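Exercise 7. Given the encoded structure of a 126-residue chain, write a plausible sequence.
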């Protein structure tokens, strides 16, 4: 198992729940993907942000992104991946754009090169 792995738990005959296992030096954590607000990369580390905590990994952002469901998680900046289901609003009056999330004061940034992809993803996620 890598430091970050995505699995699907069968809830009933027709419904599965995606979750990830996160391996840190001291723990193995199980986290439902819907709890993730965004994932940030800084100085060779990735930080998984939920409403209540931040989990640090030594895994690069591209490796984490490759395991996440593409219909729910998108890259919005070279340092940010967001969960589309947890966005409360995007402030387009700032540069870079600022993404806010339900139930949290945490924010992420949309770079110019990812703006069109963000708009397309939001329009297709309805």
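Solution.
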């Amino acid at each position: 198992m890598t430091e970050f792995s995505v699995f699907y738990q069968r809830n009933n005959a027709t419904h599965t729940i995606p979750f990830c296992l996160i391996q840190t030096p001291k723990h193995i954590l199980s986290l439902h993907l819907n709890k993730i607000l965004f994932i940030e990369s800084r100085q060779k580390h990735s930080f998984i942000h939920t409403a209540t905590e931040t989990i640090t990994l030594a895994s690069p952002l591209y490796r984490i992104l490759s395991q996440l469901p593409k219909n729910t998680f998108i890259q919005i900046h070279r340092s940010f991946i967001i969960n589309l289901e947890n966005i409360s609003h995007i402030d387009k009056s700032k540069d870079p754009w600022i993404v806010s999330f339900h139930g949290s004061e945490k924010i992420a940034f949309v770079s110019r090169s990812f703006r069109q992809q963000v708009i397309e993803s939001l329009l297709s996620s309805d």
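Remark. The chain has one domain: 4-124. Students should compare their own answers with the one above.
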